[in-house]
Amino acid sequence: MSHAHFFLIGLATLILSVGATGTAPASETIKIGVAGAHSGDLAPYGLPSLKAVQLVVKEINDQGGIHGLPVELLVEDDGCKPELATNSATKLVSSGVRAVIGHICSGATKAALPIYHAAKVLVISPSATAPSLNQDGEYPFFFRTIATDDIQAKTQVDFALQTLKAGKIAVLHDKGDYGKGLAEHAQSLIEQSGKAQMVLFEGITPGAVDYSAVVQKIKRSEAEALLFGGYHPEASKLVSQMRQKRITIPLVSDDGIKNDTFIKLAGKDAEGVYATGPADVASNPATKLYREKYKQIEGTDPGAFFNNAVAAALALTNALAKAMSADAEAVAHVLRTEKVATPFGPITFDAKGDPVGIGFSLYQVNNGQFVQIR
Amino acid sequence: MHPLLTVSGLTMDFGGIRALDQVDLRILPEKIVALIGPNGAGKTTLFNCLTGMYRPTGGHMALTPPGLPERRLHGLPPYRITAAGLARTFQNIRLFPNMTVLENVMVGRHCRTTAKVFGAIFRPAATVREEQETVDRCLALLERIGLVDQANEYAQNLPYGAQRRLEIARALATSPKLLLLDEPAAGMNPQETVELENLILSIREDGLSILLIEHDMKLVMRLSDHIFVMDYGRMIAEGTPDEVRRHPAVIRAYLGEVEADA
Amino acid sequence: MEYFFELLFSGLTRGSIYALIALGYTMVYGIIGLINFAHGEMFMIGAFTALIASSVLSIYHLPLPAILVLAGLAAAVWAGAYGFTVERLAYRPLRGAPRLAPLISAIGMSIFLQNYVLLAQTADFVPFPSLIPEFAFLEPYSAIINSSSLTILAVSTLVMTALTLLILYTRTGKAMRATAQDQKMALLVGINVDRIISFTFVTGSALAAIGGLLIASHIGQINFAIGFIAGIKAFTAAVLGGIGSIPGAVLGSFILGLTEAFATGYISSDYEDLFAFALLVLILIFRPAGLLGKATAEKV
Amino acid sequence: MKSPPMLTNKDVRHAVLTGFWFMFLTFPLLVIKVNPTEQTVTWRWANMLWVGGVSAVIALACRLVATRRAGRAELLRQMPAQTTHELHPFALPSRDRLIPLFGVIALFFIVFPFVFSAYQVNIMTTALMYVILGLGLNIVVGFAGLLNLGYVAFYAVGAYTYGLLHFHFGLGFWAALPIGGLLGALFGVMLGFPVLRLRGDYLAIVTLGFGEIIRLILENWREFSQGPSGIANIARPGLFGIDMSLEHSLVYQYYLTIAIALLTIFVVNRLRDSRIGRAWFALREDDIACQAMGIDTTAAKLTAFALGAAWAGMAGVLFAAKTTFINPASFTFMESAIILCIVVLGGMGSIIGVVAAALILMLLPEYLRAVAEYRMLAFGAILVVMMIVRPRGLTSQTRRIYHLPH
After folding, report:
1. pLDDT by residue (tens digit) across A51-72?
2. What is the pTM of this model?
3. Which chains touch C (3 or more CB pairs under 8 A)?
4. Distance (Å, rounded) from C-alpha B94 to C-alpha B167?
5. Which end of chain C is less congested by CB atoms within 10 angstroms, N or C?
6. Quick one: which H or E segment has residue A253?
């Protein structure tokens, strides 16, 4: 036999063995998928969610599982890319998951939803905020434990107009799915209000080495407040460079920066920065419990969307238990009708699948901590 | 008889250096013409201008195949000059090393064939015929240079002398009227040189003219119908081998100024 | 007018950041004609090493200047070691291989090193201490320039000068030029080509590491992906200036930095990268070998 | 026959030194982990021992392989010259010997959806799309030797062609497929014109820039492309208006992709052995000689760009139909780099090599899921190792063999 045969047969074996890894043996567990960005540059937003779900599920399994059945997690990395998300979704569906917690990015979620929908798999996203995901009621089994962009943008804009009384507002975003969506909502809200003038609307490049040019532009625009849609790395760079250039206007940003990493990154410049986030959770026992657990294991504070993912996991497992069935419609019914205790307090879901009970409040960094002010 | 190639006042400047200075050249049909001169005289530069590799600073070049109207060459890109009937080989062999011997020659047929993308994909009868004709012609050329048995070898695996011959075959595949050979005998053993000589003579039999740059003076004197001599970018002499051999300027150029001063 | 100067300095800061990385690209390319995609990772590794070193040292309450110097040294040493190892493992076995093989090897190395740091350290952004002290004399101009920008600007100028001198006037420099021209000939005249190439990689990586320290200190945070993004820009700058040319890399970097700053300032930062790449395409159309690259007519 | 090669003391010493070197090298990053805000340091000495041990063992193994190989080469040198053929372990045998093997592979691909889950089918469809992309880029890089680092731009053009045409005019997959191909080709020519004069690495960076420009436009020009929020609900490919379940639709897409991949193989194969294919190879091998042989290099380059881009455009349409949602995040430089890796790994210009490389590179990360978080690390390492072991790619490129009249 020639070497070429070896080579081609080797290839065939490789393909076959890849095929084999996917077919897991059937066993008596409740399978739940966890999908999101666990590698690549968006991993910081996906990994905390994964950890959160793992913590919750471990606790449930330690207590004997759901009706005696242990919960098994199937983890899929989609890198926040739509095409990978569809692959992850098909994989989860074909491995027989009952429900999925994910995906992290709106784009990936959008791409994956039709596949889950076709298989009647229930989906709870901890972080996909695009309002368009469930607007037309197309996906009755889609839920999320985060309020949508339009609500968040409204909180921000109301605050900037009414409390800060800013007459000129600059709006920046990170050109991403989440940040730009939010910024666009803010833009239209400012224009509708007629109370303030939007003096700047621009995207900054994530990962750029320096933002001083755009900072100078903010200064020149004479904005009285800056709204930023995006995540903590860009926000912290932006605010540090603004303060260096002695620009003291308030920065109002979003849930994507409302985490400890932002405060660590921006250091003293973080002081006074406003961010929207779910109503105060710090005193909630569930929040404390899981954050403590995370800290014990990882040694650091949990990152973005951790609470949302805990909430998603709690809501889902609770509904699975109460529905006495893994049927998507029964589970969805429980989610819509019964309140469940989460880090955000008791929540339930409306007809579209958006959470009732996770509203947005405003926080300000005070002495190295986000403190609720409104 | 009207000359096949007419070059007048050809000038080539590189920055401030004048590599060719008002060069005139006339080549009659079916002649073997040699271009000689010391190293750096501008011979290869002249080749590069003739084939369009360099764009001359000034002067005229024209090709007039017998029975056809005159064709202006200066300012044309290389591929159009080749299409007009001028083909060349290179001093430092430039074959396509990772293509087979046969394919190397087939590339030479490019400008005489017409198959386009459509033809390549759908292979209509016309394309199949054209391909077959190309293969036949090229195999015939390989037969002629004695490489037909190596047709499916990669060109890079050929011995040196065979590579030189292959370059000539590839140039001939373009159906030229005038063949430019840049030091075809360089690095060849006496046996190979004799074969080359016969090949060149047989090419003339086919009705082509040949312009060759060569340092092997014995070969040049034996083969050439006419010789041009260059030095410092100028044409310093021309004539039959005998005339050139006795030309004082040639002697001076080759033996150096020492003798002239003495 | 003040706005113009503000943008000018902003562009110069960006430009000098690119320059520190671009110099390494251009050195390696000049010597072995390889687009070293892993060069950006040297910058990232340097920054992480500096972070680790400075954190460990600050526990012992060393004074800031001492920490800066020691962290810089550690960054340079280890990034140099990584550069050396990467060349030995991924590029040296491929000398004489088809031209694209080392390029793919470099892309593989880049993916490997990024994920290595991700796994060994963290996926999230980590705050980087500002190791560069605030200069008191800059206080009045704080709206325009701060001490880290000035330091980066000064260091990149210094490094460019030093490199130019090294290449023009030292024995090693001569050997480098000879190697760049013709490796076989250099070997024949008794130059240890392997050592020269290793030297180039070590120097280039160490420079990138110093750059990593300064830049991380300027932007205040790092993660495993910073090298890749900055690397692509720096490479663009090196090509813009004519790759292989040391002053070209610096010129290209400043042009790129200024273009981005002015595009942001006068048009929109939405399109700053677009302008940068459009400029690159335009310049290469009119000067196919870059601004200071020598357009060598191919010998026929 | 000599005794099997032994490891000498020197080899062992070398291995130990290598171990120490890597312990030094990885010391700051692997051993120390700091928390800069809380000023705490974690020391992970166990990592150091691992690194030292593993790298020493690998070094020893490499030495062993090298000595073995040297021994074998020595052995071969003593044997008659004709056996040198054996030195190329992956040199392809003649066509008729491959036919039964191709039969097996064909059967495998035909029954695949019936044996494996929808997920496996989906992954295979993705891999086959990369076969198409790889073969398309192979025209530009492998055949014509024009290094293109922005190939993903044409992929994006195709995807957005279908996305936008569907969104605005409700155009179906089959209508969009040729339009995507044509627009891809048009953009290929658009890129081709300005870069005609550029060589090698300058060409690489300009194409990289072009790829980024396309992505940036898609990201920022909201009115045109809906920006980063992308275009959703793109229709999957239809089949005479039959309503299909998702499962069936995936299987249908799988066969559809196989069909287009086969078409690609067929066309690319014919192109390679044609007048134009020869002109591209000549261009790649030596552009000066190529011009001297009467080839219009401008036309040859533009044709290569256009045809290569056309395949990317069609693959883009397929992609949009498969994911039903597109946004600019799918069209980054990394994507171009992966496609280029497929071409180089396969062996520039070799069709079967590119097909094999595409399947391996696309399935590998799936296969590596067993090592979950280490998979991208392993992917990078494998690229490096593959290049060192086989710098010319998996298959030595094959040129057409003509039958000689004898």
Report:
1. 899 999 999 999 988 888 899 9
2. 0.86
3. A, B, D
4. 8
5. N
6. strand A251-253
Q: How close, in Å, is residue B258 to chain D by CA atoms? A: 40
pLDDT for position A15: 45
Same domain? B58 vs B102: no
Quick check: A90 pLDDT over 60?
Answer: yes
C189 touches chain D (CB under 8 A): no
Considering the domain architecture, whether residues B132 and B192 belong to the same structural domain is answered as no
Q: What is the pLDDT of residue D376?
A: 76
Interface of C with B in 143-202 (CB under 8 A): none
Domain spans, chain D: 9-87, 109-389
If you write DSSP's letter for every residue of B198-260 in order, what string do you get? Answer: HHHHHHHHTT-EEEEE-S-HHHHHHH-SEEEEEETTEEEEEE-HHHHHH-HHHHHHHH-HHHH
Q: Domain of B99?
A: 95-174
B154 to chain D: closest CA residue: D399
Collapsed DSSP state (helix, strand, coil) of residue B59: strand
pLDDT of residue D406: 56
Q: Are residues B168 and B186 in the same domain?
A: no
Residue-wise pLDDT tens digits, C247-296: 899 999 999 999 999 998 888 888 888 888 888 888 888 888 888 877 65
Residue B67 sits in the same domain as residue B190: yes
Whether the Cβ atoms of residue A135 and residue A190 lie closer than 8 Å to each other: no
Q: So what's the pLDDT on residue C136?
A: 75
* C-alpha closest to that of D343 among D138, D203, D154, D153: D138
Could C35 and D204 be called an inter-chain contact, meaning their C-beta atoms sit closer than 8 Å? yes
Instruction: Report chain D residues whose CB lies below 8 A from the CB of A75.
Output: 372
- The answer to whether the CB atoms of A12 and D105 lie below 8 A apart is yes
Task: Work out the minimum CA distance from A38 to partner chain D, whole angstroms.
Answer: 8
Residue partners of D258: CB distance under 8 A and separation at least 6 = D109, D128
Query: What residues are paired with A252 via a beta bridge?
Result: A227, A274
pLDDT of residue A290: 87
CA angle A255, A258, A261 (to 5 degrees): 135
Which of A209, A247, A248, A301 to probe the C interface (max C CBs under 10 A)? A209
pLDDT of residue C6: 85
Question: Which of C115, C256, C291 should we substitute to test contact with D (largest number of D Cβ atoms within 10 Å)?
Answer: C115
Residue A44 in contact with partner chain C when CB distance is under 8 A = yes
Query: What pLDDT digit, counting tens, does each position of A212-249 carry?
Result: 889 989 988 999 999 999 988 899 999 988 988 888 99
Asked whether at least 3 C-beta pairs link A and C within 8 Å, the reply is yes
